[in-house]
Amino acid sequence: MIETERLMLREYTPDDFDALYEIMSDPETMQHYPAPFDEARTRRWIEWNLENYAQYGFGLWAVILKETGEFIGDCGITIQNIDGEMLPEIGYHIHKKHWRRGYAKEAARAVRDWAFLNTEYDRVYSYMKYTNVGSYSTAIANGMKKVKEYPDPKNTISYAYAITRAEWEKLQRPAPCTENTVSAKGS
Ligand SMILES: CC(C)(COP(=O)(O)OP(=O)(O)OC[C@H]1O[C@@H](n2cnc3c(N)ncnc32)[C@H](O)[C@@H]1OP(=O)(O)O)[C@@H](O)C(=O)NCCC(=O)NCCS
Question: pLDDT at residue 186 above 50?
Answer without folding.
Answer: no
